[in-house]
Specification:
By secondary structure, this protein is of the alpha+beta class. The chain is built from 10 helices and 18 strands. Helix 1 runs parallel beside helix 2.
Length: 393
Amino acid sequence: MNTPYHQAHIIRKLAPFKVDGLAIPYPEFVPKLYNFCISLGFQKGLIMPSRAFCSDENQGWPIILLTKHFGTFPFNHGRVGGIVATSRHGPHSHHGEDSVLVQASHVGYDPHSGIYGTCTRPKMQGTCISASCGKIAHVITPYLERYKSARTRVFLHRDDKGNRLITVKNAFIDFDIHPVKNGIVFNLENIVKINPDGKIVPMSAISTGQTYEVSEKFRKRIDATGYKWKTGNGEMIGDHLTADLFYFRQEFHETDESLLLEKNLIEFMPTIVTSPNPSLRAAKINIQLEFVRTMNSIRRGKEYAGKNLLYIAGLNIDISEQSDHPATTYFVPWAAHIELRGGTPAEYEHPVEQDRLFELIMAQDIENPEQADLKEQIGRMLAAPRFDIRSPK
């Protein structure tokens, strides 16, 4: 049985993950990445790339570009959702003198509407639009559904005396004797008045819920939006159900390798489900947490000891083919970890953060004279003599 997530009392804050102005088209990113490796002292012709991408077909062109510019098909470090298979560090390190690992979760983007989260599947008949990363969508959908339901089952209202009230379903309240086992738990201490003795006591009750007087702080917050409190049953809380007002206590849904993805996201699920672009928010969070986990696994292990290593994490943004442009992918760098064979200089002893990493990449030449001619290579394979392959006697 998986351990359910409980509300944290020590809050973890994530660094801001910027996208605007930092997205690099993959045909530009990969040659610059290669030249960045060369500038660090990596050996031409001896660099083994690896990628930790989702398995979707829209990640294919980035993989082809890595193949073209590094001259070999990249090792596979990835699991569904952009999770890094840290157990593969050893095999990866054995395949080249120098090592590069590119990790990215991905999300679709429509440049015309500005909406994230979907892409067009070109190998399906007609116009088939689906979640750009089905695994991220699969993980967050049950939480989105619970959040959408809660928005319609909690009510704001006022009584004849002018008291501002909130009526919350019992299923969302963490009673001492009957705590919530699975689902949304309301942070009532952020919403309602608390007695001098520290107890939260309802003003009244109905068959399925409790009615509380809201705190002055919460009332002022709602009033600041121009909200007009209504008498009687009032109205649904709707958009006023913000991320700081609830959390999830949930037995994990996942039972396969994507369990790690759900573990990464559960703590931040309120900010995901309340985001206007949940898939984008989830992808950003997963990248940040995977970078820390993977970097720590590299530092603890010895697989890359004595080698040149560049581990770079970021966001893949997929844009589907449309009448005026082909399908393409952009990379938004997040952070990088660097180890160098002759000793890592002071400037790279700590992770390279987003702004600095973007500067380092963009400072590189876009021309890569060592890139492979894939068409020529395939032609050489076709022209090669046919070998007589037999079973051993």
